[in-house]
Write a structure and sequence with these properties.
The protein is mainly alpha-helical. It has one domain. Helices cover 79% and strands 3% of the residues. The protein contains eleven helices and two strands; from the N terminus they run H-H-H-H-H-H-H-E-E-H-H-H-H. The chain has helices spanning 2-32, 35-43, 47-75, 81-98, 100-113, 119-146, 159-183, 201-225, 232-249, 257-265, 272-316; strands spanning 188-191, 194-197. Strand 1 (188-191) and strand 2 form a beta hairpin. Helix 6 (119-146) packs across helix 7. The relative contact order is 0.12.
Length: 317
C-alpha cells in the first residue's frame, strides 16, 4: 500500500515537472535564436526547394519513428502503429532540440507509461532505439571514413589516416554486433535488475539499415540546400563528425557545433554566406518546424491520455 502511494505521488511530481520543463525549454530555445537570420536564410531559397527539403526532413523523421516499430517487434508489446509512431516522432523532435535526457528518455517513459507499458518494456524500447541509431551511425560513418571521403585539415590532431583507422574500427563494431545477433549462443545478459537480450539476425540487419538510412537522409537535406559544387559523400562525412562533436559538447540541438565543423572543413570550397544560409535553413526544416509539429502532437497525446483515464474511472467504479 505504501509503495503504491509513493508511486502515485512520484507520477504526480513527474507530471508537474514536465508541465514546467517543456514551456521553459521552448522559451529558452526561442530566445536564443536569431529569428531575423532564420527569415533571411529561408527567403534565399525558392518555395519549391524548401518544400522538397521539408519532405526530406519528414522522411528522416519517419525513418526514425520506425525504430520504435522495430522495438515493438523486439519487445512484443501490442500498441498499434497509430500510437507508436506519434510518440516516436515527438520524442525524436524533443531529443534533437533538448538533448536525449528530455526527449529520448523522460518523454518516452512518460508517454509510453501512460499507454500502459511497464518500465522494463519501455527500457527495452529505449535501448533498441539507441542501438539502432548508433549501429547505423557506425556502419555509414565507418564506410565514409574508411574510404577517405572526408579530408581533414592538416592541423587537426586525428588526420585523414587516423580518421580512416577510426572508420575501420566502427565497421568492425557494427559488423560484430550483427554477427553476434545472428550467431551468439548466449543471447541474454543480466546486470542487477536489467536484462539485455540480443535481437534476431533479421532484426539486427533492419536496425543498421534503418539507422544508416536516417543519417544518410539528414545529410541529403543539407546537400540539397547547398550550392551545386557540394559533394554528397563529403557532406555526409562532415555531418557525421559534427554530430559526434555535438554529443561530446553536450549542447542542446548542437547549437554552434554543426556550423563550426562545417565552416572549418569546407573553408575555401564554397562561399561562407551560402554555407551559413544552408545550415540555417537546415535547422529550420529539420529542427524548428518538426518541433512545432511535435509540440502540437504532444498536446494531443496528453489530451487523449487524460480522456482515456477519465473513461476508465467510471468503468472501475
Amino acid at each position: 500500500m505504501e509503495r503504491k502511494r509513493w508511486r502515485t505521488w512520484a507520477k504526480r511530481l513527474f507530471t508537474v515537472l514536465f508541465l514546467i520543463l517543456i514551456p521553459a525549454l521552448l522559451f529558452t530555445l526561442a530566445r536564443n535564436l536569431d529569428w531575423n537570420e532564420v527569415r533571411q536564410s529561408l527567403m534565399a531559397y525558392k518555395p519549391g526547394t524548401l518544400a522538397i527539403g521539408l519532405v526530406m526532413a519528414l522522411c528522416s523523421f519517419l525513418i526514425f519513428a520506425s525504430y520504435d516499430m522495430l522495438a515493438r517487434a523486439y519487445t512484443g508489446h501490442r500498441l498499434p502503429a497509430r500510437q507508436v509512431l506519434p510518440i516516436a516522432f515527438v520524442c525524436y523532435a524533443f531529443n534533437l532540440n533538448f538533448t536525449t535526457w528530455v526527449g529520448g528518455v523522460a518523454l518516452r517513459y512518460r508517454l509510453y507509461g501512460r499507454l500502459g507499458l511497464d518500465t522494463p518494456t519501455i527500457t527495452r524500447i529505449l535501448t533498441l532505439g539507441l542501438l539502432t541509431n548508433w549501429m547505423g551511425y557506425m556502419l555509414i560513418a565507418g564506410s565514409v571514413f574508411a574510404l577517405r571521403l572526408v579530408e581533414l585539415p592538416s592541423h587537426w590532431a586525428v588526420g585523414t589516416t587516423g580518421l580512416q583507422m577510426i572508420g575501420f574500427l566502427l565497421l568492425a563494431v557494427s559488423s560484430g554486433y550483427v554477427l553476434a545477433c545472428g550467431f551468439a549462443t548466449k543471447r541474454t545478459w543480466r546486470w542487477r535488475e536489467h536484462e539485455l537480450t540480443l535481437p534476431s539476425l533479421r532484426l539486427a540487419v533492419c536496425q543498421v539499415v534503418l539507422g544508416a538510412s536516417n543519417w544518410a537522409m539528414m545529410a541529403l537535406l543539407i546537400f540539397w540546400l547547398l550550392p551545386d559544387e557540394a559533394f554528397y559523400p563529403s557532406i555526409l562525412g562532415i555531418l557525421l563528425i559534427s554530430c559526434v562533436a555535438g554529443v561530446v559538447a553536450h549542447i542542446p540541438a548542437g547549437l554552434g557545433v554543426l556550423e563550426t565543423v562545417f565552416l572549418g572543413l569546407l573553408q575555401g570550397q564554397m562561399a561562407q554566406g551560402s554555407l551559413v544560409a544552408a545550415l540555417l535553413a537546415y535547422r529550420t526544416l529539420y529542427y524548428l518546424i518538426p518541433l512545432v509539429l511535435a509540440v502540437i502532437t504532444y498536446l494531443v497525446l496528453e489530451k487523449r491520455a487524460k480522456a482515456m483515464r477519465q473513461h476508465e474511472k467510471p468503468a472501475q467504479t
